[in-house]
Specification:
The chain is α/β, with parallel strands linked by helices and 427 residues long. The protein has helices spanning 171-178, 227-231, 254-268, 294-302, 320-333, 350-353, 372-379, 386-398, 401-407; strands at residues 5-11, 44-48, 63-65, 85-89, 93-97, 103-107, 113-117, 148-155, 161-164, 196-203, 206-212, 239-245, 277-282, 308-311, 358-361, 367-370, 415-418, 421-424.
């Protein structure tokens, strides 16, 4: 069964405890402390497996716990580091914090492997605490605890083109005609409950991946029916094809259907309406000569929105090739950057809270903030996106950086520089 959603528990390993022991060999008087360090706990790592295309495995196993590091031993023996726990997921899986719904990582594009939870560091053995005044320390450092988290996994299908429309308008028939995909096809509502992918080959190296998105219904953006389960797969598509029953074989009005679908897309994610779109007026072979021309009606209604309308019959194949070449041309003009969801949730580790940073002011009056954790955060944050910039602001607030800037005398309109990025400060 196709599964595109799962909730799982993950926990990284605890670091091994440091050891307390003293040398007791013969002829070695006052041997001193020789307790070794504990090993590092295992990380929780998510990795893309190209052989997977669903999240079905996570319906059977919902708890993933990495091993703890081994404790240190006597004679300066260090405990072994624990093996990392690698969790395989299909490409396109978005990992979210379950409580807040914020994105931790998107396993798409170049992001093939990511450490989601770091294991705890091993504790120091008592050999590390010997000093001139304390030559026989009887204590060692415990290993750091692992981190645990409930996460939500969402698989958002990766395709160039998405077929959207109401149930039973011919999306599955169109996909089966133009590709090697074989979705189940029948004449009843909600035939397709799972998204299907097919590769469209236009020859001479041209082609694209097309997804048959299950039929939407009104109220889908509010979760009616399986609305959210279907809509999430549209988010990565670069081009959308509105498939409508131009003949109105079931009494539906194709114009009203397109407006209804646009309304659902806008309610779910307004950015979806900015995607290039084409209307496929299907079932034209069922239009009677005496009826009003549905093609002309569609063009009058949607030409002002710069939406092209192509008459097709998915059953006979008439007009389909013209539609595919138009879609391919639209793809050629559309940026090829994959839709990747930006990080919104930062896991704060105890050791990271103590990383130093500095707030200073240069000769030009610019406030300069520097530090290893800030440099790392800027490396994985897309400041060009609204959510990425909001994540950046929350980071500055939660880590006390904004408070330190205000203590340094910053005023509204002043400039802050962080590793090549400059911002104007406003409360």
């Amino acid at each position: 069964m196709f599964a595109d959603h799962a909730k799982i528990f993950i926990k990284s390993g605890k670091g091994g405890d440091g050891h307390v022991s003293f040398r007791r060999e013969l002829y070695v008087p006052a041997g001193g402390p020789d307790g070794g360090n504990g090993g590092r706990g295992g990380d929780i790592i998510f990795e893309v497996d190209p052989g997977l295309n669903t999240l079905t495995d996570f319906r059977h196993v919902r708890k993933y716990v990495a091993r703890d590091g081994e404790p240190g031993g006597k004679r300066r023996c260090h405990g072994a580091d624990a093996d990392d726990l690698v969790i395989k997921v299909p490409e396109g899986t978005v990992i979210k914090d379950f409580d807040s719904g914020r994105v931790i990582a998107d396993m798409s594009g170049e992001n093939r492997r990511e450490v989601i939870l770091r294991g705890g560091r091993g504790g120091l053995g008592n050999m590390n605490y010997a000093t001139a005044t304390m030559q026989a320390p009887k204590y060692a450092q415990p290993g750091q605890v692992g981190h645990e988290l409930w996460v939500e996994l969402e698989l958002k299908v990766i395709a160039d083109v998405g077929l959207v429309g109401f149930p039973n308008v011919g999306k599955s028939t169109l996909l089966s005609r133009v590709s090697n995909a074989r979705p189940k096809i029948a004449n009843y509502h909600f035939t397709t409950l799972d998204p299907h992918l097919g590769v469209v080959d236009l020859g001479d190296g041209a082609g694209f991946v097309m997804a048959d998105i299950p039929g939407l219904i009104e109220g889908a953006a509010d979760g009616v029916g399986l609305g959210h389960d279907f809509l999430r797969h549209i988010e990565r598509c670069r081009v959308l094809i509105h498939v409508v029953d131009a003949a109105g074989t079931e009494g539906r009005d194709p114009i009203a259907d397109i407006h209804a679908i646009q309304k659902e897309l806008a309610a779910y994610n307004p950015e979806l309406l900015k995607r290039p779109m084409i209307i496929a007026a299907n079932k034209m072979d069922a239009v009677y000569a005496g009826d009003e021309d549905p093609l002309e009606r569609l063009r009058r209604e949607f030409s002002p929105q710069s939406l092209s309308v192509y008459p097709i019959s998915a059953v006979s194949g008439k007009g389909v090739r013209e539609l595919l070449f138009a879609v391919n041309e639209l793809l050629r003009k559309t940026p090829q950057e994959p839709v990747v969801f930006q990080k919104e949730f930062d896991i704060i580790y105890a050791e990271d809270r103590n990383l130093p940073y500095t707030v200073s002011r240069d000769s030009d009056g610019v406030y300069v903030v520097e530090g290893p954790r800030i440099d790392k955060m800027l490396g994985y944050t897309n400041l060009e996106s609204e959510k990425g910039f909001q994540f950046f602001q929350n980071f500055l607030k939660q880590n006390g950086i904004l408070d330190d800037l205000e203590k340094a005398g910053i005023q509204e309109g002043d400039t802050v520089r962080m590793y090549g990025h400059e911002f104007d400060y406003y409360k």
